[in-house]
Amino acid sequence: MALPPKILIVGGGVFGLSTALSLSKRHPDSQITLIESAPTIPNPHGSSVDTSRIVRADYASSAYSKLAASAIQKWRSTSWGAEGRYTQTGLLLVYPGNSASAKKYAEKSYANVRAIEGDNVVYLPTKKDVLGVVPPYGETLDVAGGYVNWGSGWSDAGASVKFVKELLDKEKKVVFKHGEVKRVLFDPSSSKKRATGVEMVDGETVNADLVILATGAWTPRLVDLRGKALATGQAIAYIKISDAEQRELENLPTILNFATGIFIIPPRDNLLKIARHAYGYRNPITVPVPGSQSGETMQVSLPETGVPVPLEGEEAFRVALRQLLPRFVDRPFAGTRICWYTDTPDGDFIVSYHPEYEGLFLATGGSGHAYKFFPVLGDKVVDALEGTLEPELRALWEWTEATPTSASEDIFDGDGSRSGERNSILKDELAKTKKAGRGSVL
Ligand SMILES: Cc1cc2nc3c(=O)[nH]c(=O)nc-3n(C[C@H](O)[C@H](O)[C@H](O)COP(=O)(O)OP(=O)(O)OC[C@H]3O[C@@H](n4cnc5c(N)ncnc54)[C@H](O)[C@@H]3O)c2cc1C
Known about the structure:
The protein has 442 residues and is α+β, with helices and mostly antiparallel strands. The protein has a single domain, classed as 3-Layer(bba) Sandwich (FAD/NAD(P)-binding domain), CATH 3.50.50. The protein has helices spanning 14-26, 62-77, 100-117, 127-133, 157-171, 243-249, 311-324, 374-386, 391-397, 426-435; strands at residues 6-10, 31-36, 53-55, 86-87, 91-95, 121-124, 145-149, 153-155, 174-178, 181-187, 194-200, 205-207, 210-213, 230-240, 254-257, 262-268, 271-276, 281-282, 284-288, 297-301, 335-343, 350-353, 360-364, 424-425. The strands form five sheets. Strands 5, 6, 7, 14, 15, 16, 17, 18, 21 and 24 form a ten-stranded mixed sheet that branches. Strands 9-2-1-13-23-22 form a six-stranded mixed sheet. Strand 22 (350-353) and strand 23 (360-364) form a beta hairpin. Helix 1 (14-26) packs across helix 8 (374-386) and helix 2 crosses helix 8. Bound molecules: flavin-adenine dinucleotide. Keywords: FAD, Flavoprotein, Oxidoreductase.
């Protein structure tokens, strides 16, 4: 399908940048503009930017396993993964004795990656086998078994976003614009409302034939996504370690426990990261319903940036460290951060034209696992724009319902890999933290 000449992408994270890169190659005559509200790309508050992100084909879903395998090929053997942007030290996926769902996810994932990586994937039926793979982890490790996939790794997420931005700057085919989009503009006279561009917060309008929203966890402010997507805050903490500790830990696999959601990625530059892949914190805010003429409002969960991890999250990390790496249990955190997932009901992305508005396309819904696809994601987004996306992915990513199904109180189950408290409100947790006399948890 031919694409219209003037294309506007909003958002400079992995969805927006990879789309810009693929569009600039496949549609070199299009006029492409990318608007980002942060003053810099990489945006330190964006979901795509961090010290590290896991790169794994270890999924219970074979569609994501296959797609991740194609991305991993690029991380491994092209400039995507060069200069330290990709490090392949493996992924150790473990489950405790008391979580049937975590064990089930691990077993499905094992079967999927074993088919792709063969002998790179080793089943570890007992705790002793697990400890054999990560000797520096303590006897306190609370696991019943798992497997290790030596074909997985991790990527320096800030460096990779910078790499793609620099590629685009060099190509000069995409115009970058700094500013916050307030709303999408529509031509009300067309029978199916047609997007005509965006209005910026300062009142400026930017016209386009096609508007692609790659606005991550902020998207529910621009499109009514009730029942479709919401922002959930996930906890991350960093621990400063010595040179000797760095050498001891840097070549270990990432450890991921789907029962607790806790994962530890091998350190770089004397910084060890511990994080939690969970239901997360919600941050309900009342905002106008996008496109409403009558002043209608809705409550949606949106990101709150620059806040520390609440006491509850810090304590969960301490419990996990006691089990995993007890020597760090009392070491102060060098920093903490809430990073925002754009969660969807099943953990599937939204890569689709909006069913109600012509010329409006969404590339979002990363659900805490989109980063690894950076090298291949843009091509899939452009396939979807052109109407040629393979049916298996289209079935997962296409927006099929025109009407939102329910209110913002949704707590999505995701892909079965989530754990923890299901109904946690960030403001309440921060208030509890303050009450406990901890203005900051650092
Ligand atoms: C804690 C954490 C850990 C994760 N771990 C992994 C992992 O190990 N492996 C993995 O594969 N994935 C992981 N992910 C998921 C992955 O990082 C995300 O799915 C992906 O980065 C989402 O990219 P995005 O482009 O949708 O969002 P973002 O990177 O947030 O980009 C959206 C951009 O849009 C901009 N924007 C928003 N609204 C507007 C507006 N109105 N006007 C202009 N600009 C706007 C924002 O400023 C932002 O820069 C993790 C995510 C988090 C938060």
